[in-house]
Amino acid sequence: HASKIKPSKIGLVGFCCALRVNMPTLTGWRLTLVLNVALCTAQIALGGFHVLGKWALDKGTNPIIFALYREICAGPILFIIALVVERTFPKPRDWYRFVFLGATGVYGNQLLFVLGLYFTSATQAAIMQPCIPVFTTIITQALRMEKFSFLKVAGIIASAAGAVVMVGFDGLSLHSSAFLGTACLIGNTLCTAVYLVYMKGVLKDYPPISITGWAYLVGSVFMGLTSLIFVFQGRTSEYIVGRSALLPLAYSILFATVYTYMVLSWANSKAPASMVSAYMSLQPLTSALLAYFFLHEVLVWREGLGALFIALGLALVTYARVRESRSEEAQAYQPVRDEDNTMSSSPYDTNNDTPTMPQYKQ
Predict the structure, then answer these.
(1) 3-state secondary structure at position 359
(2) What angle (nearest 5°) sits at the alpha carbon of residue 154, between those of residues 149 and 156?
(3) How many of the other CB atoms lie within 10 Å of CB of 50?
(4) How many C-alpha atoms does 77 have within 13 Å on its Cβ side?
C-alpha cells in the first residue's frame, strides 16, 4: 500500500502506487469533483500544445518527425506506469483490440493532428476539436449505444455547418493547403471519437491505464514505420530537430500526452464517452488566448462564426445527454417487492434488522 512507502522512496513508483490505491475509492461528489478538475486540466494542456506545437512547426520542424519523437518518448513512460500501477497484460485473443486503439487513438489521431496543425493555425486546430463530441454522438447513435434524440441531430447539423463555414471558400479548392489541413483535423477528431467509444468496450475487461500503455506502444510502432519514408528518400537530416523544438516536444510528451491520455482513459472508465468528449470544447478557448499572446494570431470573422456554430452544436448534444442521464436516474430505482408481491416501503427487511440495498436496473 502507498501508506507504507517511506517518503524517501516516493518517486514515480510511489506516485503510481498511491494512484492505484486511492483513485478507485472515489465516489459521489468527490468523484465528480476529481472528474471535472482532471478533464478541465487535460483540455487546458492540449490547448497549450496547439500553440507550442505550432510554434515548433513554424521553426522548421518536420511534423511527422515531431509526432515520432512525441510517441517514442511518451510510449515507454505510459507503458512503465501501466505496469507499475495495474500490472495487466493483454490476452493473445485481445491483441486486435489494442492494435485498433493504437491505430485510431494514437497513430491516426496524433499524425493527422500535427499535419492539420502544420497546414492551418493553432486557433483553427483548436476550433475543430468540439467536433469530437459530435462524432462521438454519431457513433453511439449508429451503434445504438444511446437513445435517439432530435437535439443531438440538431447539434450534429449545427457543428457540421460550423466546420463548413470555418473552411470557407479557400477550403473548396483541392489545391488549397487550408483544405488539406482541415481534412486532417476532421480525421483527427473522428479518430479521437472512435477511440473513446471503442475503449468503453475494452474497459469491461482491462483497467484504463493498461489500455493506454499498450495502445500507445502499438501506435508508436506505427509511427516509427511511417517515419522510415525519410530513410528511403535519403532525407535522414529530417530526424534532427533544432533547440527551438525541445521545449514544445517536452511539453507535448509530459503534459499533452502522458498526463492527458491517462486522464482520458481513467475518466472514460468512470463516465460516459459523451461526457468525456464534451470537455474538448475548452481547447479553443485556451488555444485562442495563448495564440493571441504568443503567436499574434487574430480570429477572423469566418473562424469566429464557425466556432459559434460548433459551440451551439456541442451545447445541444451535451444538453440532450444531460436530459437522458436525469431520465435514466429517475427510472433506475425500483422498490423491492415482498414475497406477497407488495411494495416494501422501507429498505429494511422486516425479518432482519440489517438494511438491504435498493435494487437497480443494470
Answers:
(1) strand
(2) 95
(3) 28
(4) 18
Torsions phi, psi for 201 (to 5 deg):
-75, -35
Nearest Cα residue to 135 out of 321, 317, 287:
317
Cell numbers representing residue 250 in the block = 517536452
What value, to the nearest 5°, has the Cα angle with vertex 248 and ends 242 and 251? Answer: 140
In this structure, the strands spanning 359-360 and 333-334 are antiparallel
Tens digit of each residue's pLDDT (9 = 90 or more) over 157-191: 787 777 667 656 555 455 577 788 889 999 999 99
Report the chain's C-alpha Rg in angstroms.
23
Distance from C-alpha of 103 to C-alpha of 196, rounded to nearest angstrom: 13
Note the maximum CA span of the chain: 82
Record the pTM. 0.74
Neighbours of 331 (CB within 10 A): 9
Neighbour count for residue 250 (Cβ, 10 Å): 13
Write b or e for each residue in 146-161: b if 16 or more Cβ atoms lie within 10 A of its Cβ, otherwise e. Answer: beebebbbebbebbbb
Of residues 267, 248, 115, the one with CA closest to residue 191: 115
Please tell me the total number of residues recorded for the chain in this structure: 362
Give CA–CA dist 101/90, Å, rounded. 13
Residues 6+ apart with CB under 8 A from 151: 316, 317, 319, 320, 323
**Selected residue with higher pLDDT from 322 and 316:** 316
Distance CA 313, CA 307 (A): 10
* Nearest-5° Cα angle at 48, 184 to 256: 75
Residue 270 to residue 207: CA distance in whole angstroms = 11
The grid cell for 181 is 489541413
- The pLDDT of residue 179 is 83
